[in-house]
Amino acid sequence: MSSPLSKITPSALVVGYGSIGKRHVEILQKQGVDVAVFSRRTLSISGSFDDLSTALKINKPSYIVVANRTGEHLETLQELDRLQYKGKFLVEKPLFSDQQVYIPKSPEKIRVAYNLRYHPLIQRLRTALIGQKICTFQVYVGQYLPDWRPDTDYRKSYSADKNAGGGALLDLSHDIDYTTWILGGWERVAAQGGRVSDLEITSDDTFSLMLETPRCAHVLVHMNYLDRSSRREILVNTTTQTLKVDLVNGTFQIDNDQEYSTIERNETYTAMHEDMQTSAPEYACTYEQGMDLINLIAAARTAADKKIWIPK
Length: 312
Known about the structure:
Number of helices: 10
CATH class of the largest domain: Alpha Beta
Radius of gyration: 19 Å
CATH architecture of the largest domain: 2-Layer Sandwich
CATH superfamily of the largest domain: Dihydrodipicolinate Reductase, domain 2
């Protein structure tokens, strides 16, 4: 039986067929959507194209997922504009690998795939903080890069390549996104980061941001490629409560009361695609928010290099 999504999105095109592109294809197909793939590599799968113009003419997608390398996103968006694509599309995070001044023809139709916004524990935290005075907000995310994709040599992944848009700061920007989403944006940033380990990469393997935001003046976000035991945790102190979220172990804690919550592997992606098919997606990261996050990342790099605070 097809899902409601298949009735709204009869056909979709996924640009790029790496690990994340394959995941999007799998999820959309399970939702009953007719999915084609555009890749410059020759693929031995049905419904694949090596020319974007041909893919648009034959597949006629009403929904496009841009899931190629971060460093190729700008070229892809420009090409879709040139080919006069009129539908919605979702761009994998981060939007770009560096600051851009590009304004697409229809930015209101573009969203950025920060799927952790759809995680039940992130949404629960966001709801729990409504109306509260937030004193401190701390985020820690770490995962050992060589273990990240077990079937791939980490040294050949885009994560390892600075020029391809890799690095902890960009790769793990999910955690910067939900932080600024919950806290109303950002006002200024200080940072430290770079390559500090012996990993055979050209990208940064660790970064720490200290932020001031509209809802909290004391925000810390740390991300790295180094933790042998994966961690993704949030610790928030308000004037009345301490809240802890552990996304790896699936726990939500307020003061000393802890609850467990488990989700399926693709649940957040599925929810994101469903939200994208509504007339006004409720949680999806907008193009403007995605650009603002790229500006924050650029400011963090400058702050780390010059050891100064950078205002928005």
